[in-house]
């Protein structure tokens, strides 16, 4: 590299220079800070002092056993409900609540709230001139807006406590407003509860009137249905048909019992008569009057025979007459027993006829009952509907009575209560003088220190150049592969740092020109500027400026005491040579947009040259794209070879570099680029429309070089040689390329970059 080429690649911050600048500016910083603190203190002294008072409200459901309904359960106090507390806060800040406070305390007459103390407002005047004045149209709006600004309603942590904080220039007024807001909210909640109860009473009254008509109609329908279907009800809520069925069933059972009893007694008497046994023991026979007389006569004759038997023999006529009478009595008794049996049999027949009649009646009633059962089902439905209407009417009547009693006696308890009343404050809440002064002092110090440091960095006085070392001979730098870099093998992540050989400059003569103080003081610093810095200070032509810098350096060195630098090795002049400084300046200044780099040699020196050119372009804020179209190194990610084969799309191969500073297109996973495909040319043209600098590595000038593929794009063709010895041989290749039809081919030596 020549003396005109750049050598400084980085700079560091000189902490000592920064601290020295802060030390020099420290008195001014302290003075400005004290002035700002004094001005702030004066402003705070004239600001009105506001006092703050707080009242607390507890939100919880309330109930009392003496005012609670008989069937109402006591509400349970659960945890803090954020939604309920938030609703209460919004009710406290509502317009209706605050208007009650304004009316109660007559805040419209307070100068602090009616806007008479607001004074002159430049912003308000400006808004009026623009026609966008937001001044309230009424005194109520003014007082409400002021009260909104002075009042804060917050929930205390996770509790059901709501704090109402009010600020005012009068501490007593602040406490009165806070207490009035709390009381107004409690009264409003009580009125809302009573309003709900009154609304419920009105609704219940309407429902009761409607239900009365419904109940009357339902009961009338039940009665009419009973009349139409003869479904009369007797004692014990039993229908007449059921009672008749029960009575007939009982009568049939009784008749059967009497018939069976009579027939059984008659059969018994006949059996006794047939067996010749006495029938006197049978109840029915003994109950006969004839049998009783005959039995008495029989007893008398038996007694008389017994007396006569004592004196007379059995064959005595008297005894025989008495025996004959006794036999006659027995016959009569048996005849009477037979008649009793016949009577019992007749009685059994009568009971049998009665049973048959009752059974016929029962069958007829059963047929009637089958029809009545279906009617009873319909009757039960009508009765259930009537009963439901009646029960609902009775329940509504009970609720209406309770609701009316609550509304009349105002017995409903609100769900909020005041637990802490506000007291006048003795310490002003604002302005916080100490806190504001501390904030102003910190901001003033930090701002001035930051401005001082920024000015030192911007002027460059706090920056010191950092120089690197370059080897004497150019060598191929191994390409570190970053795991996330798409084409790390094409362009190494770290640039090769170079440094000019140190030239000791003797003391400058006092007769030096006054228009060149920078060359007398820091000649080496000026000569070590890189090509991007030279491009910034250049007016129009970079080459002219580099030539001027060389001449000024020669003039700045004393003719006698200066130690000449070691002579450069002789170098043969090769036509078409281009220096690195000129090539970098053309890229930075926009003279070269598309650069095609071809290699002469085995070490692919174009990669190192492309890396340095990209760093220079990026340092000037240009957007850069690098296309690997000649390395032939197969990588793990898709690239240009895959695009030419149609395996991937355009968006799949454009990747970010390892430092995410420029775009890279790798060689890809293929062995060669399809020269019959137009996709690589389309990609380079699209990159030229997007990026300001496009560098294409076409590889070694040989059979596999992609230079013919991109030659028609009109880019700048540069043949890169590794050292000066290869430039002569590269010149032969240059002539062959020109003969092949390329309009212009230049040669760049990598040794120029390392110099």
Characterise the protein shown here:
This protein is 54% helix and 10% strand. It contains 23 helices and 13 strands. It has a seven-stranded mixed sheet, sandwiched between helices. The protein has a four-stranded antiparallel sheet with strand order 3-4-2-5. The radius of gyration is 65 Å and the shape is elongated. The N and C termini lie close together (4 Å). Helix 14 crosses helix 16 and helix 16 crosses helix 17. It is of the alpha/beta class and 755 residues long. The N terminus is likely disordered.
List descriptors.
4-stranded antiparallel beta sheet, alpha/beta, 755 residues, disordered N terminus
Question: Quick summary of this structure?
Answer:
This protein has 755 residues and is α/β, with parallel strands linked by helices.
